[in-house]
Write a structure and sequence with these properties.
CATH superfamily of the largest domain: Dihydrodipicolinate Reductase, domain 2
CATH topology of the largest domain: Dihydrodipicolinate Reductase, domain 2
Strand content: 15-25%
CATH class of the largest domain: Alpha Beta
Structural class: alpha/beta
Oligomer: single chain
Strand order of the largest sheet: 16-15-14-13-7-12-11-8-17
Shape: globular
Radius of gyration: 22 Å
Number of domains: 2
Length: 402
């Protein structure tokens, strides 16, 4: 998309075209924007979705809605500054935002605990829907959302976009498509990062609003685990605590209660074993995946440590021993994409969303996959509280899921 005629996004990042009149633009010609989207939830992630929509080029932002007036105004000002001359509808109600016939799709990025009620209104519109992760904060809500999505006729996509990061795209290609390392036997994923950032009303500091850290943030990694395991989880055991972050944080009479570190072990129905290592008081953004297979080992990582050192921010190595060729490299996207949000993952999430709308079917996270990412997160949260191994079948029977 970026390299084709009529797509200014790639070239305009490196060259100027202000001296040209529209008649003389070909490479720099404005992309034909055939799809209009409404952002529901105009916070930090909502603004990322706006910028990526405009960058991708085939869609544009028609309107925004947020129940918080400060967020609405801030995002309106951001849009008018960064994309001058384009109209933007600011809706007064959720119903107006969902039902505007001028909009083709809804991008929902409100706080986690609001998703179910918002989707109930959104599905009445019949529009294409992209719902941010986690799709819900409880198993009961996740089941209801999954059932709604399964019956929905338009595109219904879950925002588990980490699978589109360069390191994971390459890992999928090597391990699942090329099968370079043979049959995967173990999966290890790590995230070390700074604490949760500030949110409107600080909802992400409280498990009852976020679903808990292992649901809110780590559903991304459990989705990746499930993707590489190609199986459903059988049991989960976890240890974790609130060791450093927000121990003295109080807001509106509530004490923060989210964990900031954990070790999670998952056993799958096909015998595969996986582990996840979380630390949210590290001075960096670092994530890593290691896959060990019957014929080799794959390791990939992504790192931003805020140091003035010249070194690659991504790395992947495939070691096959005598079974095949080894590879060492730095998977990445063009800089304009890489810098657009979540190291390019949000861009491709949007690209595939529009591809699917246009009938060019792409593999994107379904509500079923979103559900299973929450299942592991919820099981891990329960295991930490009880100190016991959680049997997934028993847990799901409580909410009547087969």
């Amino acid at each position: 998309m970026l390299m084709q005629q009529g797509s200014t996004n790639y070239y305009s990042s490196f060259f100027k075209s202000d001296h040209l009149i529209d008649k003389d633009k070909y490479i720099f010609a404005e992309t034909q924007r055939n799809w209009k989207f409404t952002i529901i939830g105009a916070g930090m992630i909502g603004q990322e979705h706006i910028r990526v929509t405009m960058l991708e080029g085939r869609g544009e932002i028609h309107g925004i809605y947020d129940s918080n007036s400060d967020s609405r105004q801030n995002t309106k000002e951001m849009f008018e500054k960064e994309f001058p001359g384009r109209g933007l509808v600011v809706y007064d109600s959720l119903q107006e935002a969902c039902m505007d016939p001028a909009s083709d799709g809804l991008i929902i990025c409100t706080p986690n605990f609001t998703h179910l009620e918002i989707v109930k209104e959104a599905v009445k519109s019949g529009k294409h829907i992209m719902l941010e992760k986690p799709m819900a904060t409880t198993l009961e809500d996740a089941v209801e959302l999954k059932e709604m999505a399964e019956k929905y006729q338009a595109v219904f996509q879950i925002g588990l976009q980490y699978r589109y990061k360069a390191i994971y795209k390459e890992a999928v290609h090597e391990a699942l498509e090329r099968k370079t390392i043979g049959d995967i036997k173990t999966i290890s994923i790590m995230e070390h990062r700074i604490p949760f950032l500030d949110k409107v009303n600080q909802w992400n500091k409280f498990a009852k609003y976020s679903g808990g850290t292992l649901v809110e943030k780590c559903c991304h990694y459990f989705d990746l685990m499930n993707l590489f395991a190609q199986s459903k989880p059988l049991s989960v055991y976890a240890v974790g605590d609130m060791d450093v972050n927000f121990r003295d944080f109080h807001y509106d009479g509530q004490d923060a209660d989210i964990i900031d570190d954990a070790f999670v072990t998952v056993k799958y129905e096909n015998g595969m074993k996986a582990q996840f290592n979380l630390c949210m008081f590290a001075p960096m953004f670092y994530e890593e995946i290691t896959l060990c297979g019957s014929q080799g080992r794959l390791k990939a990582y992504e790192n931003e440590d805020f140091l003035p050192l010249e070194r690659p921010s991504t790395h992947m190595e495939v070691l096959s021993g005598e079974n095949g060729t080894a590879r060492v490299g730095s998977p990445c996207y063009p800089k304009v994409i890489q810098d657009s949000g979540h190291n390019g993952a949000t861009y491709y999430e949007h690209k595939y969303f529009i591809d699917n709308i246009q009938g060019d079917t792409r593999s994107t996270a379904t509500a079923e996959e979103g559900f299973w990412s929450i299942v592991i997160g919820e099981a891990a949260e329960r295991s930490i509280k009880t100190g016991e191994v959680v049997d997934i079948h028993d847990m799901l029977q409580q909410v009547q899921v087969k």
